[in-house]
Design brief:
This protein is α/β, with parallel strands linked by helices. The protein has one domain (2-206): Flavodoxin domain (Rossmann fold, 3-Layer(aba) Sandwich). It has helices at 16-31, 56-59, 67-84, 102-111, 148-153, 157-166, 184-206; strands spanning 2-7, 36-41, 88-94, 118-121, 124-127, 133-139, 171-177. The chain has a five-stranded parallel sheet, with helices on both faces. Strands 4-5 form a two-stranded antiparallel sheet. 33% of the residues are buried.
Length: 207
């Protein structure tokens, strides 16, 4: 079994999503000792944001791809191949400005390739990357899950569930720590709740 561990926070050692994503991976390996882990830190190894060069070879509009197009295509192929080869993906996804970090979005843009992770049919799109387990570690300074207004402002978990569903992945689980900026007591409660989520997410996904 192959597990791909991804972090995207820019906060380094101060990051809650990094702390908890590492705990998810450790718990998974305890439950599944044969798991091999590959790590990708998107705050350090960030793919370029999507440009025309990134899809230049895919369009086939030019007889001869440019050097920039070859480079960007190689980046996309490396990332999508790594993703497709993984059985489990653990993602540290902090909440930045009501959504996910741009570096995490840049990674997802490289995965969204027709013929690799999805295809279009006469009846609509069909995901091609099913059968995987995705565990998202979601960290938030405020509280968004407990009110209708907060849920309307949240484009982090909702986006990730939609995009992985578009890829055909139905087993998407969330480990959530929110209210982290509301003081030490609230932060401690958020971490305790998240660690309970880890036990559930790993237990359910491993069965």
């Amino acid at each position: 079994m192959k597990l791909l561990h991804i972090d995207s926070s820019v906060l380094g050692a101060y990051s809650v999503s990094r702390l908890l994503s590492a705990e998810v991976v450790a718990e998974w390996r305890t439950a599944n000792s044969q798991t091999t882990v590959e790590y990708l830190d998107l705050a350090v190894d960030t793919p370029n944001h999507f440009t025309a060069d990134a899809i230049g070879i895919k369009t086939g509009l030019q007889a001869e791809p440019t050097e920039a197009q070859r480079f960007e295509n190689a980046v996309s192929e490396r990332l999508v191949s790594q993703f497709l080869a993984s059985d489990v993906i653990v993602i540290g996804a902090p909440f930045y400005n009501f959504s996910i970090p741009t570096q995490l979005k840049a990674w997802i843009d490289r995965l969204a390739q027709a013929g690799r992770t999805f295809k279009y049919t006469e009846t609509g799109p069909v995901g091609l990357a099913g059968g995987k387990t995705v565990i998202v570690v979601s960290s938030r300074g405020g509280m968004y899950s407990t009110s209708e207004g907060g849920q309307a402002m949240e484009h982090q978990e909702s986006y990730l569930k939609v995009i992985f569903g578009f890829f055909g992945i139905t087993d998407v689980r969330f480990v959530r720590a929110e209210g982290l900026s509301r003081g030490d007591t609230a932060k401690a409660a958020a971490l305790e709740s998240a660690r309970s989520d880890i036990a559930v997410a790993v237990g359910q996904a491993a069965n």
